[in-house]
Amino acid sequence: MTRFWRRISVNCSYLMPFVFAICTIISCKPPNPDNTILLFSCLDNGGNYQIDTKITVTFDTVFTSIGSVTKHFKVHNTSNQDIITTLFLAGGERSLYSINVNGVPGADANNYFKNVEIPKKDSIFIFVKVNINPLNQNNPFLVTDAIVFLTGDIKQEVELIAYGQDARYIVADPSTGFKVVAGEHETVHWTKERPYVVYGWAAIDSTGTLVIEPGTRIFFHRNSGLWAYRYSKLEINGTLEEPVLLRGDRLEAGFENDFAQWDRVWINEGASVSIDYAVISNAFIGVQVDPLPNNKGEIAIVPTSVNIKNTIIKNTHNSGVLARFLSLNMTNCLIINNGGCGMQLECGQYSMKHLTIANYFKGDRKTPACYVSNKVSDPLFEAVPALNTKVDFINCIIYGNHEKDEPEVVVGKTQGAELEATFQNSLLKAKFNPIYFKDCFLDEDPQFVDVKASDFQLQSTSPAIGKGKPDIEVLLDILGKPRGDKPDLGAYQFGR
Questions:
Q1: Which residues pair with 45 in a beta bridge?
Q2: What is the predicted pLDDT for the residue at 220?
C-alpha cells in the first residue's frame, strides 16, 4: 500500500486545548468561579479553622492504558495566618491517580506531600491525572480515590472519580503510518461490545472487507483515520436505534469544540462503500472520496460505489464531504458546522437526495456550504484537466450563516468539459441561476428548530414543508418517519 501521507493534500496545524476542572464547594463565602477551593477560609469563635468539605474532581470516561487529561483545582487560604498542611492520596502506591502541587510531584509512590505551606491570602494548585489499568470487561467501571488533607487535627478529603473503559486498540506501524485491519480477501467484523481506539490509520487493503456492526464506537487519536484503500470494501451498518459512532478519542468536556480531533474517513477508487446511520464528528474532514495518485501524480478514474444514508457529519475543521473524480450518492443526511464547505463536489458523478446542509460554523469561514465544479481546486491535481461532471440535488436544504450577500451554493464551471448541475425542489441560500436551479426556493429561512442546539428539524411554519418532489424512492426520513406524497425538504420530515 502506498504510504498514506504522500496523498493527504490538506496541510493543517492542530491545537490541543488544556481542560480544567470546575470544582465548587459551599464555604463561608460564595463559591469562586475560578476553580478555587476555599479549604481554609473561616475561623470559629475560638480561633480554630472550620474546613468545609465535599468537593469532587470527576473525569469523563478514560480508556484503559491511556492517561487522562490533567485537571486542577486551587486551594486558597483566605485567612490572615499561614497554614501548614500535609496531603496525599488515600489509595497510596496502589492508586491509579497521580497528583502534584504547583507542578512538583510527591516525595514517594504515595504522592505524599508533607508540611505544605499556604501563606495567608495565598493559594496552591493541585494537579490530578488518572491512568487506568485494563480489567478485560465490556462495561465501563468506576475508579475512585481521594486526596487527603491533614491540617492539625482536621482531616479533609477531596473525592476523585473516573470511569474506565476497556477498548480494542488499533495501533499503526510507525514505519508506514497505517495498520491493515482487513487484508486481501479477508472479511473482518467490528462489533459494539467494546469501543475501538485508533492510533494512525486503520486501513482496509485491496479486496479486503471491513464490516462495522450496529452500535460500534470508534475513537480516533490525533491525525488518525479510517482508510478504504483502492478496490476495498467498507460496510458501516448502523441503525436508527444503534448508530455507528466515529469521533475523536478525547471525551473530556471542552473537546467537543475541537473540530480537528482526528483526520477523516478516506475512500479511494474502485472501493465499494456503504454507510448507513453513522455519526461522524470532530474530524478535519468528515468523508473524502477520491483516487490515490501514483508516483507520477497520475490518477485512475474507475467505477466506485459510495452510498451514504441516514448519516450525520458534523463539526469538521474543513469540509464535511469532499469528493473528486469518482461517484457518490447520499440520502437523508445532515451535514452541519463545517469550517470549509459542508459539501465540496468536483469532477465526478454525484446524486444527492433529501440532504440538510446547514453551515453555521462560528469561526471565520470563507467557503460556501456547497461548492460544485467540473475542475478540481486542489493544486495537487492542477495537471488534471476539467472533466465532464454531473451533479443532482433533489429535495435538499442548503443554508448557513454567510453574510447576506454571500451565497451558500456556488457552481464553478471551467471551459473544456461539461458541467450538468441540477438543484431541483430545494431551499437554497443562493443567487438566482436559471441554468442550475429548477423549482427552488431562494433565500427563505428554513426555520430550523434550534440552530444553537444543532436541532435542524423543521418548525411547523417552515417553508420547506410539503415542497419536495414526490416519487424519488425515498420513503422515510432520517428518523424513520414516512415521507408520504408531500415530502418535506431536507433530511427531516416534519412530525405531523
A1: none
A2: 93
* CATH number assigned to the domain covering 167-458: 2.160.20
Average pLDDT across the chain, whole number: 85
Q: How far is CA 268 from the centre of its chain?
A: 22
pLDDT band at 2 (very low <50, low <70, confident <90, very high): very low
Q: How far apart are CA 371 and CA 342, in angstroms?
A: 8
CA distance 295 to 43: 75
- pLDDT (0 to 100) of residue 267: 98
User: Residue 460 and residue 447: Cα distance in Å, rounded?
Assistant: 9
**Residues of each domain in the chain carrying CATH 2.160.20:** 167-458
> Tell me: domain 36-165, CATH 2.60.40.10, correct?
yes
Within the chain, all domains assigned CATH 2.60.40.10 are found at 36-165
Rounded CA-CA distance 248/264 in Å is: 10
Grid cell digits, residue 190? 467490528
CA distance 427 to 449: 16
Distance (Å, whole) CA 307 – CA 372: 19
CA dist., res. 466 & res. 474, Å (int): 14
Q: What is the pLDDT of residues 235-246, one digit of tens each?
A: 999 999 999 999
pLDDT digits (tens, 9 = 90+) for 286-299: 999 999 988 777 88
337 backbone φψ class: left, alpha, beta (φ>0; ψ -120 to 50): left
Q: Are 323 and 350 in contact (CB under 8 A)?
A: yes
Percent of the chain with pLDDT strictly greater than 70: 87
- More confident: 229 or 154: 229
Given this model, what pLDDT does residue 155 score?
82
Q: Shortest CA distance to 268 belongs to which of 335, 341, 324, 184?
A: 324
Query: With contact defined as beta carbons under 8 Å apart, do 9 and 380 qualify?
Result: yes
